[in-house]
Design goal:
The chain is an alpha+beta fold. It has seven helices and seven strands; from the N terminus they run H-H-H-H-H-H-E-E-E-E-H-E-E-E.
Length: about 230
């Protein structure tokens, strides 16, 4: 499963729409049938952000010192102190503390962003199943579901966009970009491109501000697996 998900993670943004639907075994015109949707719901579970046990700010801060390179620097500072080289000792200690502060701020902001993202999660979604548009609980979305987006919608799940009509999405919660991003179904050839440059993707919790689109839900590619920006 991990290998399969990594393949889609890297190739989903660089595939043509027909390749995505073929991989996910979904009819691009009718969507999934109800029986297959129920089967996938059992296999993949609910479309929710997987929460990890939150750490206290104190644990976050001290966790920054667990990195191997930081431990090496601390040992170097101790050795420098023993031999009387106070200049190097102070310099190393300052570097270690600054690194811990920066790392703490980044992790703390990421945790806050994840909470905000969950709060923005859409309660419902327009999904195409058996050729009919239905409004369902967004938690019931499964990999391969064809989801319709319209202006004003909160994106109910991470979506590979298949058909885009002048869609613009507000992604400030993920990228910090204040202006809506214009989307397209064009290929993205840079597999490790930043979130803000993935114009053929719409991410859960962002907001469609203009236009409309049809997207497909990749397998287990939720914002829980998306690395949030540290800024």
């Amino acid at each position: 499963m991990l290998i399969k998900n990594n393949i889609l993670h890297h190739h989903g943004i660089s595939w043509m729409p027909w390749q995505a639907t073929a991989w996910l075994k979904v009819d691009a015109e009718k969507g999934l049938n109800h029986k297959e949707a129920e089967k996938r719901l059992i296999n993949h579970g609910l479309n929710v952000i997987r929460e990890r046990c939150p750490r206290s700010p104190l644990l976050m801060f001290f966790g920054q010192f667990a990195d191997f390179m930081i431990i090496v620097l601390i040992m170097a500072a101790i050795v420098a102190g023993f031999i009387g080289d106070l200049t190097d000792t102070i310099a190393i200690v300052v570097i270690v503390i600054l690194n811990a502060v920066i790392g703490f701020v980044q992790e703390f902001r990421a945790e806050k962003a994840m909470v905000a993202l969950k709060r923005l999660s859409s309660p419902t979604a327009q999904v195409l199943r058996e050729g009919q548009t239905k409004i369902i609980d967004a938690k019931q979305l499964v990999p391969g579901d064809l989801v319709k987006l319209e202006a004003g919608n909160i994106v109910p799940a991470d979506l590979k966009l298949l058909n885009v009509v002048r869609l613009k999405v507000e992604e400030a919660a993920l990228t910090g970009e204040s202006l809506p991003i214009e989307k397209s179904e064009s290929l993205i050839r840079e597999l490790d491109s930043p979130l803000g440059d993935r114009f053929n993707m719409a991410y859960k919790g962002t907001i469609a501000s203009y236009g409309r689109a049809l997207g497909v839900l990749p397998p287990e590619w939720t914002p829980s697996s998306v690395k949030l920006p540290h800024s």
